[in-house]
Amino acid sequence: MANAFSYACRDCDGMEACPASVVAQTKNEVWKLMELHAQVAHDENPAEWDGETREYLATLIRPVNV
Ligand SMILES: [Zn+2]
After folding, report:
1. By residue range, what is the domain housing residue 47?
2. pTM of model > 0.90
3. What Pfam families is this protein classified in (predicted)?
4. Could you tell me the distance, in angstroms and rounded to a whole number, from the CA of residue 14 to the centre of ligand 1?
5. Residues with Cβ within 5 Å of ion ligand 1?
6. Cα–Cα distance between 50 and 57 in angstroms, integer?
């Protein structure tokens, strides 16, 4: 039974070389960590992510059992 959510950056198109992944109890927390990672590692501004980008990223968040 899944009790957490994970996001692996390498699952994202164009990010295959990135080793980072995050795991947290809630999707909301995963989003925060994803946004922080994108800022720190990829110099992105998550405030500029449009609806399509967020929809795509949401499909990459997976339930996991920790
Ligand atoms: Zn990354």
Report:
1. 4-64
2. yes
3. DUF1059
4. 10
5. 9, 18, 20, 41
6. 11
